[in-house]
């Protein structure tokens, strides 16, 4: 009873913090209440913390059974539970308390409970239902839990528990459903039945857990048709069986575990599986005296088995046998055969282990394989670890690397042991011997000596010059290596003082007389390198301290030779490199003095190598460096020469430095087959001024001066620009044997990020283009061709330009531009505009063919009108061509010809005549120059068509003649009217021609032999219906 009447109208605490290891912060605590005699009433209690927000209201009577009524509302703010709510109501009395609780938002659940808190055995009736929860509670769930109903009722002296269909799901777990019934009290809990449904089957049984004196348990389990493949698809099959287990903690502080029955059967990956046996283990006194006893325990899967039998107690008598004749039956990604034995014998204080393992043709997937492995050994762990081990491995394949043999032998004790390793492979081979001793207290420390070692590769063999002391200290995490040298011929690589390797350490390495000839096997077969390298590198490092590095490298006189038809040689008299890193500042300089040439030198310094924005400054110099040594690359019939000079200074951020100075190329001379434009002299100058540069070039060509001017600005890296203008009064371009043109360019190139523009004019005032005939078997590339790689997958060629290209170029073809190609001869005149934006080039304009002739229909046709019209892509011109037969060779003053019009990929062809007449008559005038006239006309048309056919097949006949050794074999027609013949002729010797003809309208044959006596003078013999011998002289006149 409270004798005073208390009324707390309001009590508030704000921004309160309790300082301790984990500070407690209260943003707001508010309280309002009244109390008098037996009544206590809380009208408001509010708590606001970073972790939660809560409100409480209620009243309590402090007599009889303590009647009460409380209402609590709360919400969590913790990172992993932010937003979770808990609402709780309590009413009744302590002798009959009714509780209701509800979880909402992240996790959901309902709890109803009835308790008697005044009874000594605490009677209760609890029911938890509609539970839905996940983890993590925010975001995507890895695990999900559902509990439809959990009921517990009774008292602490005796209670019952029932769980129905509780479900657990997880990303790496099979779906589980649990049902159980049990009883319990303050000393134990016993499950009279439980069943867990999983993997398409179930695990059920009974279990008991007791903790009255010392913890002990007992369980009997039954597995029924578990199917692992439902969770792990590669493990197909089913498992069933029984097992029993019991055990507990002893009163002496030890433990014991027994598995008196293990009998599991099933099928995995189509092979039977059996687990059989019994095993017990204990340490009853808790002193580490572990006893393990088994009458036999085994696992058998198909032909593979693992068996253990024996005891490990005061006397060790245990044997383990591994027999795996086919590893792939148990591990689908593996192949091979493994057989082994482990025998444990001896007194507990001096046990001995003997092991033997053999493996043949072991393979893991497609990236690792072992031809054969043998491991043998005898080990004794107590009182001091000692023993011997022997490992032999043959034919190891790891991805693209292969090891032929590996032999490792280790023997001795902890205090004195030695190890030898011998390895051979195509990449490298080695042999080493190490001895040492190991100390375990107060911390692990190993000390030893590398007695001997050599390392051989395609570069050569390096031999350790003397035995080298080694040590490792676990406490300091440091390795020490004594000073020593490696030798190869006259070369040495030396550690000049003891190196300490770890978080803190130092090393000094020297390279002496390393001859580049020792790299011969690493270089391409046609490349030869000579010279010597000497150097010294010193390094120091420590935690929280900037590392230090100093390097001095030098090259003596040497050269590199690339074997060509005429050797390419680049030599140097001497070269050096110096670098120093201290207090995070890097400084370096270098010099290469080329033989009979200029020097390349420079220096660089970086103020702070750790800074994200590394600031540097330095210089690059190249003094009169001529390119004559590259002449062997150019060829015998070309010449390319120039002298390079450079003086550059750079400063500022490493990724955006400022440049000052000039790079120039003088005395430029490029002539011969290498270039379409002969350049007898020229100079190029590129000047830098901070973030700007200017280009000036004067190139003298055989026809005039080519000038190139430009400038660039990269002040803003994301908005750089470049502009270049190319112009010349005249420039002769030759691409033998087909193209000879004079070009007058006036072009401007403007570039910026993602865009390049080319604008200007190109004039072609003079040109001679002669295109050789294509081989008869030539076939154009199909537009829908698909190129495949080695795996028969389509090859997608990336866009060769990393920017968009826009063009606006006017092309003018002059009055003296002659073309001879594919039977066409004539002069070209016209104007074209080449524009490109987003897509491919778009050409607009017209090209006319003047004074042209075209070989077609077996005739030399005159081009009366010839136009090529462009209004689209370059491969789709429009043709408008009119060609006629020579009027001087056409009777009756008739004009006969052909009109070709339409797009180039599908033109239309029309035969016409003036005056107009039937197509047959027009074709006769086009092919024969005369009209059709009765039978003679029919014979003439037959002769013409045969001649036309022979004209189309002439090239194929020529190829057949060459195959049989007959030069210039031709199939043609001769004569006219009824005397028309089909003839075949060719040269069987130089100057000796043989011809045979057969009449088209009769079967009479004629054989002719013609021999060239001298230029334009021939002796000819003819044999047929009439024979003759003639002396012929050939001449021409205009």
Mean pLDDT: 89
Helix content: under 10%
Q: How large is the count of helical segments?
A: 3
Through-space gap between termini: 150 Å
Number of strands: 66
Alpha-carbon Rg, integer: 50 Å
**What portion of residues belong to β-strands?**
over 45%
Overall form: elongated
Q: Major sheet: size, sense and barrel closure? A: 60 strands, mixed
pLDDT under 50 segments (min length 5)?
945-957
- Secondary-structure-derived class: mainly beta
Summarize the model shown.
The chain has 1038 residues and is mainly beta. Among the domains are: 737-773 and 802-932, no CATH class; 953-1033, no CATH class.
Could you walk me through the main structural features you see in this protein, from its secondary elements to its overall organization?
4% of the residues lie in helices and 66% in strands. It is mostly beta strands and 1038 residues long. Among the domains are: 737-773 and 802-932, no CATH class; 953-1033, no CATH class. The strands form 2 sheets. The chain has a 60-stranded mixed β-sheet that branches. The protein is elongated, with a radius of gyration of 50 Å.
């Amino acid at each position: 009873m409270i004798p005073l009447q208390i009324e707390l109208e309001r009590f508030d605490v704000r921004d309160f913090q309790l300082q301790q290891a984990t500070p407690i912060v209260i943003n707001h605590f508010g309280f309002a209440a009244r109390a008098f005699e037996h009544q206590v009433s809380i009208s408001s209690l509010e708590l606001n913390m970073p972790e939660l927000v809560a409100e409480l209201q209620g009243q309590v009577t402090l007599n009889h059974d303590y009647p009460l009524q409380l209402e609590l509302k709360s919400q969590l703010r913790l990172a992993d539970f932010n937003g979770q709510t808990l609402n709780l109501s309590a009413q009744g009395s302590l002798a009959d308390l009714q509780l209701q609780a509800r979880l909402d938002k992240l996790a959901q659940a309902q709890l109803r409970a009835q308790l008697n808190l005044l009874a000594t055995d605490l009677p209760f009736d609890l029911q938890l239902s509609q539970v839905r929860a996940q983890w993590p509670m925010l975001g995507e769930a890895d695990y999900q839990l559902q509990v439809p109903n959990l009921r517990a009722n009774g008292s602490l002296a005796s209670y019952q528990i029932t769980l129905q269909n509780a479900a657990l799901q997880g990303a790496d777990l099979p779906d589980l459903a649990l049902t159980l019934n049990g009883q319990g009290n303050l000393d134990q809990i016993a499950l009279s039945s439980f069943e867990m449904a999983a993997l398409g089957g179930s695990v059920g049984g009974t279990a008991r857990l007791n903790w009255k004196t010392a913890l002990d348990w007992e369980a009997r389990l039954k597995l029924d048709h578990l199917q692992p493949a439902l969770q792990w698809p590669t493990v197909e099959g089913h498992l069933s069986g029984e097992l029993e287990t019991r055990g507990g903690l002893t009163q002496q502080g030890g433990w014991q575990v027994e598995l008196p029955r293990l009998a599991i059967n099933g099928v995995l990956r189509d092979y039977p599986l059996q687990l059989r046996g019994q095993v017990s283990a204990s340490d009853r006194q808790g002193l580490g005296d572990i006893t393990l006893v088994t009458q036999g325990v085994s696992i058998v899967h198909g032909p593979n088995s693992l068996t253990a039998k024996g005891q490990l107690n005061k006397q060790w008598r245990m044997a383990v046998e591994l027999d795996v004749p086919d590893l792939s039956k148990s591990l689908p990604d593996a192949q091979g055969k493994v057989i082994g034995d482990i025998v444990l014998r001896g007194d507990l204080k001096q046990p001995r282990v003997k092991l033997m393992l053999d493996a043949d043709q072991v393979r893991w997937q497609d990236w690792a394989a072992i031809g054969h492995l043998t491991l043998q050994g005898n080990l004794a762990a107590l009182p001091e670890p000692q023993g011997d081990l022997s490992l032999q491995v043959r034919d190891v394949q790891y991805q693209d690397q292969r090891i032929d043999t590996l032999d490792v032998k280790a023997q001795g004790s902890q205090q004195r042991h030695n190890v030898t390793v011998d390895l051979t492979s195509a990449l490298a081979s080695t042999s080493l011997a190490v001895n040492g001793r190991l100390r375990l207290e107060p911390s692990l420390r190993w000390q030893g000596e590398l007695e001997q070692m050599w390392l051989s590769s395609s570069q050569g063999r390096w031999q350790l010059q003397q035995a080298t002391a080694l040590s490792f200290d676990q406490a300091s995490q440091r390795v020490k290596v004594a000073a020593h040298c490696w030798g190869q011929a006259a070369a040495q690589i030396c550690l000049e003082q003891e190196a300490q390797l770890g978080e803190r350490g130092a090393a000094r390495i020297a390279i002496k007389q390393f001859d580049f000839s020792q790299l011969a096997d690493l270089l391409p077969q046609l490349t030869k390198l000579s010279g010597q390298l000497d150097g010294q590198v010193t390094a120091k490092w420590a935690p929280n301290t900037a590392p230090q590095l100093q390097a001095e490298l030098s090259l003596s006189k040497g050269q590199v030779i690339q074997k060509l038809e005429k050797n390419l040689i680049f030599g140097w008299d001497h070269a050096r490199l110096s670098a120093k890193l201290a207090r995070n500042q890097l400084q370096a300089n270098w010099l290469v003095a080329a033989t009979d040439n200029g020097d390349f030198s420079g220096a660089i310094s970086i103020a702070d190598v750790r800074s994200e924005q590394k600031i540097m400054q330095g210089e690059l110099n190249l003094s009169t460096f001529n390119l004559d040594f590259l002449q062997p690359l150019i060829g015998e019939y070309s010449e390319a020469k120039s002298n390079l000079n450079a003086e550059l200074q750079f400063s500022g951020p490493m990724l955006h430095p400022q440049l000052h100075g000039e790079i120039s190329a003088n005395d430029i001379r490029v002539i011969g087959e290498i270039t379409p434009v002969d350049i007898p002299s020229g100079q190029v100058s590129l000047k830098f001024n901070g973030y700007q540069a200017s280009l000036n070039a004067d190139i003298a060509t055989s026809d005039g001066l080519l000038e190139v001017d430009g400038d660039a600005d990269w002040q803003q890296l994301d908005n750089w620009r470049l502009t270049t203008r190319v112009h010349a009064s005249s420039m002769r371009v030759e691409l033998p044997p087909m193209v000879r043109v004079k070009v007058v360019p006036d072009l401007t190139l403007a570039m910026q990020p993602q865009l390049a523009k080319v604008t200007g004019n190109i004039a072609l005032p003079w040109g001679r283009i002669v295109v050789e005939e294509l081989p008869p078997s030539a076939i154009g590339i199909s537009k829908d061709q698909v190129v495949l790689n080695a795996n028969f997958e389509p090859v997608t060629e990336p866009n060769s330009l990393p920017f968009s290209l826009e063009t606006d170029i006017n092309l003018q073809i002059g009055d003296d531009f002659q073309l001879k190609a594919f039977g066409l001869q004539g002069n070209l005149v016209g104007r074209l505009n080449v524009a490109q934006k987003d897509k491919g080039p778009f050409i607009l304009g017209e090209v006319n063919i003047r004074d042209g002739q075209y070989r077609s229909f077996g005739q030399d046709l005159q081009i009366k009108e010839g136009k090529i019209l462009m209004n689209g892509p370059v491969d789709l011109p429009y043709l408008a061509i009119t060609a006629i037969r020579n009027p001087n060779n056409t009777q009756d003053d008739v004009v006969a010809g052909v009109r070709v019009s339409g797009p180039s990929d599908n033109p239309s062809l029309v035969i016409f005549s003036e005056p107009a007449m039937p197509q047959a008559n027009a074709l006769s005038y086009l092919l024969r120059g005369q009209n059709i006239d009765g039978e003679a006309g029919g014979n003439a048309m037959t002769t013409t068509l045969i001649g036309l056919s022979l004209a189309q097949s002439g090239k194929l006949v020529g190829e057949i003649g060459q195959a049989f050794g007959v030069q210039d074999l031709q199939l043609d027609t001769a004569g006219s009217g009824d005397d028309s013949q089909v003839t075949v002729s060719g040269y069987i010797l130089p100057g000796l021609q043989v011809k045979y003809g057969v009449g088209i309208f009769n079967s009479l044959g004629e054989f002719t032999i013609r021999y060239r006596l001298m230029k334009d003078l021939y002796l000819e013999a003819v044999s047929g219906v009439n024979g003759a011998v003639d002396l012929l002289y050939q001449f021409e006149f205009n």
